[in-house]
Task: structure prediction
Amino acid sequence: MTSASDARTAATQFRESYARIKDAVQSVIVGQDETLHGTLTALFAGGHALLEGVPGIGKTALVKALGSALDLSMSRIQFTPDLMPTDVVGTMVLDDEGGRRTLRHQKGPIHANLVLADEINRATPKTQAALLEAMQELQVTTGGETRPLPKPFAVLATQNPVEQEGTYPLPEAQLDRFLFKLVVGYPREEEYDAILNRTTGTALPTVPKVADIATLLAMRDTVREIPVPDAARKAAIRLVMATQPGSPYAGPLVNRHVALGASPRGAQALVLAAKVTALRDGRHAASTDDVLAWAKPALRHRVLLRFSAAAEGVTPDVAVEEAIASVSALR
Result:
């Protein structure tokens, strides 16, 4: 049991480490504050994140900067239609030394602390599924043997929402493994000057190492210690239920246009994200507002719409907005 003084010390260290890591990443990345906070929150909560946005807005650069700031082993997998599952998790290879033939396991790029799955929706469902065991169980099975992945382990995937030709939408089971789906937008007008200054000159900025694996693991432990009051926990449960058609908290739009609502993993994501937010802001308990603030990133990819939704311009975000309004009205 952690003492009150130890808990306060850990909370202070978390806040200071969070600020250092954020500042280090922002020495290279301009803007994208919401995306950065979302990615950091997912990482410290022990989850994975899916970053969706058009090419050229810094998704890959953000992930690389984060790996450098935390001094994590990092791999980048460029997903393409011809990528095979063994190209991700590894395979058994035959060694011939001195006339003796032996099978040896050759690790795939999944064996890293931080895995950048670039354009994940360009790979076939079979290859996308190679990530399922890794993301949920933190292990992979090759050659009939189960092999643990390094700790910490996180998948940060990117996808382009515009191009449909040559892409394979992620199945619901795959999407549910991501703690967050973060929508990455264009930079603001005033940010373009800083972007051009940092990327078109002779001296390219580098990301300083400001933390390490031990720091990240300690921050994850601290997150788990933060209490969540009954009101905040109840809000997380009701938010998830409000996306499920036929539930007592579902509104008319959800009942009409949603085929499948969020799973219990959505409630877990909301609670963990609320804990990280409380620590980041210097508080020692999560609040209902912390839960509500992460509703869209935690739930938008867990809501499956009916065909009728597209005809009426209803998106997953619109359905989640109704869920937020339903839960807020009960406070």
Remarks:
- The chain is about 45% helix and 15% strand.
